[in-house]
């Protein structure tokens, strides 16, 4: 029953309802995020008062706060004053502006996390123990207790980054769009900064905000599955887009969530995510004509 309740809360807060509406009618109504927040808050009140599920209610209140932050971010990004500062036609404007807003948005989310759960350690807002040994992942050839997450995170980051580059070229450009590598060096410092900020921001929203609140409520495998689905759905409009993007991001999210759960911190997952974002942002800068 708890898994069902967690699933309902997470799906309401996820991008899935947005995808369904956007793909059906072609746009999201101006009241959409407010409606999601009200629905989620109402269901959370039921959990708190009616079902007496206090722990799940705290999780619901956190997700409601995240939706409200997303609503503010969407309105700011669509405003004329913001677009005048961050021009949509440039890499620094289109990506830099969006990621700056995302970073500003995690500040109140971190505040709500610490208000509800008190300790940074409880919600994985600490480095974690990189010497912790990885548990067995048979399909990746990782044996039980053979390698620490510090070493594994770096190896994984390099391999995943290489795979991401290949898949992005295959699915986004098809090797047909001319690449101008000369665009890359001037943008590289900005790309590294944006990758650092974006991977941190998404780690807070899609991992700390799920794993921390629910680690005492669900078994490890179910918990990691919920967090990875939340992360995967959020990348429906990513690169690559669609179901393929959801599956790829979901698998990556599953792996990063395991690293966070087993190290009891965010650093291993941040390293993996950071390297991948460097590849994605570099590919966009080179192929996007900025």
Catalogue the unreliable spans.
none
First and last CA, distance: 49 Å
Tell me, rounded to a whole number, the average pLDDT. Answer: 91
Which word captures the global form? Answer: globular
Assembly type of the shown chains?
single chain
The proportion of strand residues reads under 5%
What this model shows, in words?
This protein has 290 residues and is mainly α. The chain has helices at 2-13, 16-25, 32-50, 54-78, 80-85, 91-117, 149-173, 184-214, 220-233, 242-263, 267-287. Helices cover 73% and strands 0% of the residues. The protein is globular, with a radius of gyration of 19 Å.
Task: Write the topology of this structure.
Layout: H1 2-13, H2 16-25, H3 32-50, H4 54-78, H5 80-85, H6 91-117, H7 149-173, H8 184-214, H9 220-233, H10 242-263, H11 267-287
Helix pairs in contact: 1-4, 3-4, 4-6, 4-8, 6-8, 7-11, 8-9, 8-11, 9-10, 10-11
What's this model, at a glance?
The protein is an all-alpha fold and 290 residues long. The protein has 11 helices and no strands.
What descriptive keywords fit this protein?
mainly alpha, 290 residues, single chain
């Amino acid at each position: 029953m708890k898994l069902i309740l967690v699933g309902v809360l997470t799906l309401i807060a996820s991008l899935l309802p947005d995808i369904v509406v956007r793909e059906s009618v072609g746009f999201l109504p101006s009241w959409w995020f407010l409606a999601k927040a009200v629905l989620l808050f109402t269901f959370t009140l039921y959990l708190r008062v009616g079902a007496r599920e206090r722990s799940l209610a705290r999780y619901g209140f956190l997700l409601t706060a995240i939706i409200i932050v997303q609503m503010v971010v969407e309105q700011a990004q669509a405003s004329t004053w913001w677009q005048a500062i961050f021009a949509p036609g440039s890499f620094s404007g289109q990506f830099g502006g969006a990621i700056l807003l995302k970073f500003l948005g995690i500040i109140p989310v971190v505040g709500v996390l610490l208000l509800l759960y008190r300790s940074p350690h409880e919600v994985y807002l600490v480095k974690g123990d990189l010497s912790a040994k990885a548990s067995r992942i048979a399909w990746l050839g990782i044996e039980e207790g053979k390698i620490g997450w510090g070493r594994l995170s770096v190896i994984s980051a390099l391999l995943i980054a290489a795979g991401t580059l290949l898949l992005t070229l295959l699915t986004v450009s098809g090797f047909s769009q001319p690449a101008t590598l000369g665009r890359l060096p001037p943008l590289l410092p900005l790309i590294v900064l944006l990758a650092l900020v974006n991977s941190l921001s998404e780690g807070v929203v899609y991992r700390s905000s799920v794993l921390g609140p629910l680690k005492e409520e669900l078994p490890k495998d179910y918990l990691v599955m919920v967090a990875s689905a939340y992360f995967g759905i959020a990348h429906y409009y990513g690169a690559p887009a669609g179901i393929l993007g959801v599956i790829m991001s979901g698998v990556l999210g599953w792996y990063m969530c395991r690293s966070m759960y087993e190290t009891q911190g965010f650093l291993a997952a941040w390293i993996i995510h950071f390297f991948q974002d460097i590849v994605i942002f570099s590919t966009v800068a080179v192929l996007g004509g900025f």
